[in-house]
Amino acid sequence: FHIGEREEKCIIEDIPSDTLVVGNYKVQRWDIHTHDFLESAPGLGMFVTVTSPTGEVLLSKLYGPHGTFSFTSYLSGEHIICFQSNSTRFAVIAGSKLRIHFDIRVGEHFLDESAIQAKDKVNEVNVRLEHLIEQIHHVTREQDYEREREEKFRKTSEETNSNILWWAIVQTLILISVGIWQIKSLRDFFISKKLV
């Protein structure tokens, strides 16, 4: 994505609880002379801020022109990941565009390659098995989170349906009472004018 040099850009990521999140990014600055983005942006860094669904700041750190950050979500919900450059130039002359390449991995645990390349095949199988068990736990957590969201959505839908039912009953009662009042008023009017 592209941002201005002094602009902040935020991304919302829906993450289950107790999940490891790893993000990699690389910043490129627009070069006026070559009319292209430079591969490196020396001296330019990024403030990375991660906020939990309750507004608690989980991570707030300055990184270089490329970096890796990670955090663990303690609550399930929408986490906000914000990027802002550390440019100190005035807003008038800080008109340069930045291109950010961003890759996020949610719930991914990395295999230790040195352990995998061990000569002992039993250790290799054991490490891979532990990795698979971790992935199964991650999938289970994500399914539990989706069940929670589905249950919350179902409750909201049922409450809305019951509110609509009561509103329809109230409208019907109001219409019937207005109709009865109009009939009574017309009857009283006709009787008072001696038309009936």
Automatic annotation (TrEMBL):
<dbReference type="GO" id="GO:0005789">
    <property type="term" value="C:endoplasmic reticulum membrane"/>
</dbReference>
<protein>
    <submittedName>
        <fullName>TMD11 protein</fullName>
    </submittedName>
</protein>
<keyword id="KW-0256">Endoplasmic reticulum</keyword>
<keyword id="KW-0472">Membrane</keyword>
<dbReference type="Pfam" id="PF01105">
    <property type="entry name" value="EMP24_GP25L"/>
</dbReference>
<dbReference type="InterPro" id="IPR015720">
    <property type="entry name" value="Emp24-like"/>
</dbReference>
<keyword id="KW-1133">Transmembrane helix</keyword>
<feature type="transmembrane region" description="Helical">
    <location>
        <begin position="164"/>
        <end position="183"/>
    </location>
</feature>
<keyword id="KW-0812">Transmembrane</keyword>
<dbReference type="InterPro" id="IPR009038">
    <property type="entry name" value="GOLD_dom"/>
</dbReference>
<keyword id="KW-0732">Signal</keyword>
<feature type="domain" description="GOLD">
    <location>
        <begin position="8"/>
        <end position="106"/>
    </location>
</feature>
<comment type="similarity">
    <text>Belongs to the EMP24/GP25L family.</text>
</comment>
